[in-house]
Amino acid sequence: RSSDLGNTIINDSENASSDESWVDRLSPLQKRIIGCSLAIVAGVLYGANFIPVLYIKDHAKRNESKYAGASQFDLDYVFAHFSGIFLTSSVYFLIYCAAMKNHPKIYPEAILPGFLSGLLWGIANCCWFLANHYLSAVVSFPIITAGPGFIAAM
Fold first, then answer.
1. Predicted TM-score (pTM) above 0.90
2. Cβ neighbours for 37, distance < 8 A, ≥ 6 positions apart
3. What is the band of 148 on the pLDDT scale with cuts at 50, 70, 90?
4. Residue 28 — φ and ψ, nearest 5°?
Protein backbone atom coordinates (compact mmCIF):
# COMPACT_ATOMS: atom_id res chain seq x y z
CA ARG A 1 0.00 0.00 0.00
CA SER A 2 1.44 3.34 -1.05
CA SER A 3 1.20 6.53 0.99
CA ASP A 4 0.71 8.57 -2.18
CA LEU A 5 -3.00 9.38 -2.47
CA GLY A 6 -2.96 8.90 -6.23
CA ASN A 7 -1.53 5.38 -5.96
CA THR A 8 -3.44 4.15 -2.94
CA ILE A 9 -5.16 0.81 -3.43
CA ILE A 10 -8.74 0.83 -2.25
CA ASN A 11 -10.38 -2.46 -1.28
CA ASP A 12 -7.48 -4.56 -2.46
CA SER A 13 -9.39 -7.80 -1.93
CA GLU A 14 -9.68 -10.22 -4.80
CA ASN A 15 -13.44 -9.66 -5.08
CA ALA A 16 -13.23 -5.87 -5.54
CA SER A 17 -14.96 -4.64 -8.67
CA SER A 18 -13.47 -2.37 -11.32
CA ASP A 19 -12.78 1.25 -10.37
CA GLU A 20 -14.55 2.46 -13.51
CA SER A 21 -17.58 4.58 -12.73
CA TRP A 22 -20.69 5.10 -14.84
CA VAL A 23 -19.66 8.75 -15.02
CA ASP A 24 -16.49 7.79 -16.89
CA ARG A 25 -18.62 6.44 -19.75
CA LEU A 26 -20.48 9.75 -20.28
CA SER A 27 -19.65 12.32 -22.93
CA PRO A 28 -18.50 15.79 -21.80
CA LEU A 29 -21.93 17.21 -22.71
CA GLN A 30 -23.73 14.54 -20.67
CA LYS A 31 -21.41 15.21 -17.73
CA ARG A 32 -22.15 18.93 -17.96
CA ILE A 33 -25.93 18.35 -18.10
CA ILE A 34 -25.89 15.95 -15.16
CA GLY A 35 -23.53 18.21 -13.18
CA CYS A 36 -25.70 21.29 -13.73
CA SER A 37 -28.87 19.35 -12.91
CA LEU A 38 -27.39 18.05 -9.67
CA ALA A 39 -26.16 21.56 -8.81
CA ILE A 40 -29.72 22.88 -9.25
CA VAL A 41 -31.11 20.10 -7.04
CA ALA A 42 -28.45 20.82 -4.41
CA GLY A 43 -29.26 24.55 -4.55
CA VAL A 44 -32.98 23.92 -4.09
CA LEU A 45 -32.33 21.60 -1.14
CA TYR A 46 -29.80 24.05 0.31
CA GLY A 47 -32.35 26.83 0.03
CA ALA A 48 -35.03 24.70 1.69
CA ASN A 49 -32.72 23.83 4.60
CA PHE A 50 -34.33 26.16 7.14
CA ILE A 51 -37.95 26.02 5.98
CA PRO A 52 -39.11 23.68 8.80
CA VAL A 53 -37.58 25.90 11.49
CA LEU A 54 -38.93 29.09 9.96
CA TYR A 55 -42.37 27.48 9.52
CA ILE A 56 -42.53 26.40 13.17
CA LYS A 57 -41.31 29.80 14.40
CA ASP A 58 -43.85 31.68 12.26
CA HIS A 59 -46.74 29.45 13.31
CA ALA A 60 -45.73 29.50 16.99
CA LYS A 61 -47.03 33.06 17.18
CA ARG A 62 -50.60 31.91 16.46
CA ASN A 63 -52.54 30.52 19.39
CA GLU A 64 -54.66 28.22 17.22
CA SER A 65 -51.59 26.54 15.70
CA LYS A 66 -50.26 23.20 16.93
CA TYR A 67 -46.87 24.97 17.18
CA ALA A 68 -48.18 27.61 19.61
CA GLY A 69 -45.57 28.38 22.21
CA ALA A 70 -42.67 26.86 20.24
CA SER A 71 -39.28 28.43 20.83
CA GLN A 72 -38.33 31.52 18.83
CA PHE A 73 -34.60 30.93 19.39
CA ASP A 74 -33.08 29.18 16.39
CA LEU A 75 -30.38 27.24 18.27
CA ASP A 76 -33.13 25.27 20.01
CA TYR A 77 -33.68 23.49 16.68
CA VAL A 78 -30.03 22.57 16.00
CA PHE A 79 -30.10 19.13 17.65
CA ALA A 80 -33.16 18.01 15.66
CA HIS A 81 -31.69 19.46 12.47
CA PHE A 82 -28.32 17.75 12.90
CA SER A 83 -29.92 14.48 14.03
CA GLY A 84 -31.98 14.42 10.84
CA ILE A 85 -28.89 15.03 8.74
CA PHE A 86 -26.96 12.28 10.56
CA LEU A 87 -29.83 9.79 10.23
CA THR A 88 -30.32 10.56 6.53
CA SER A 89 -26.61 10.27 5.71
CA SER A 90 -26.44 6.99 7.65
CA VAL A 91 -29.36 5.60 5.62
CA TYR A 92 -27.66 6.72 2.39
CA PHE A 93 -24.44 5.00 3.46
CA LEU A 94 -26.30 1.78 4.28
CA ILE A 95 -27.98 1.87 0.87
CA TYR A 96 -24.55 2.40 -0.71
CA CYS A 97 -23.13 -0.55 1.25
CA ALA A 98 -26.02 -2.74 0.11
CA ALA A 99 -25.57 -1.62 -3.51
CA MET A 100 -21.85 -2.43 -3.28
CA LYS A 101 -22.68 -5.86 -1.82
CA ASN A 102 -21.00 -4.99 1.49
CA HIS A 103 -17.75 -3.94 -0.21
CA PRO A 104 -17.89 -0.13 -0.05
CA LYS A 105 -14.98 1.87 -1.40
CA ILE A 106 -13.64 3.75 1.60
CA TYR A 107 -10.68 6.09 1.33
CA PRO A 108 -8.87 6.05 4.70
CA GLU A 109 -7.02 9.29 3.91
CA ALA A 110 -10.37 11.12 3.61
CA ILE A 111 -11.87 10.06 6.95
CA LEU A 112 -10.19 12.59 9.26
CA PRO A 113 -10.47 15.53 6.82
CA GLY A 114 -14.11 14.59 6.23
CA PHE A 115 -14.79 14.52 9.96
CA LEU A 116 -13.07 17.87 10.48
CA SER A 117 -14.92 19.49 7.57
CA GLY A 118 -18.19 18.18 9.03
CA LEU A 119 -17.27 19.70 12.38
CA LEU A 120 -16.51 23.05 10.73
CA TRP A 121 -19.76 22.79 8.75
CA GLY A 122 -21.66 22.18 12.02
CA ILE A 123 -20.12 25.27 13.63
CA ALA A 124 -20.89 27.34 10.53
CA ASN A 125 -24.46 26.03 10.46
CA CYS A 126 -24.92 27.01 14.13
CA CYS A 127 -23.69 30.49 13.21
CA TRP A 128 -26.18 30.50 10.34
CA PHE A 129 -28.98 29.67 12.78
CA LEU A 130 -27.85 32.62 14.90
CA ALA A 131 -27.71 34.88 11.84
CA ASN A 132 -31.26 33.83 10.96
CA HIS A 133 -32.34 34.70 14.50
CA TYR A 134 -30.71 38.11 14.73
CA LEU A 135 -30.92 39.28 11.09
CA SER A 136 -33.85 37.24 9.69
CA ALA A 137 -33.54 34.68 6.91
CA VAL A 138 -34.22 37.29 4.22
CA VAL A 139 -31.03 39.14 5.16
CA SER A 140 -28.80 36.26 6.32
CA PHE A 141 -29.35 33.85 3.41
CA PRO A 142 -27.89 36.07 0.64
CA ILE A 143 -24.97 37.08 2.85
CA ILE A 144 -24.12 33.52 3.85
CA THR A 145 -24.54 31.97 0.42
CA ALA A 146 -22.78 34.70 -1.59
CA GLY A 147 -20.26 35.83 1.02
CA PRO A 148 -17.78 32.92 0.78
CA GLY A 149 -17.73 33.09 -3.02
CA PHE A 150 -17.25 36.84 -2.93
CA ILE A 151 -14.35 36.53 -0.47
CA ALA A 152 -12.75 33.72 -2.50
CA ALA A 153 -12.97 35.85 -5.66
CA MET A 154 -11.11 38.76 -4.05
1. no
2. none
3. confident
4. -55, -40
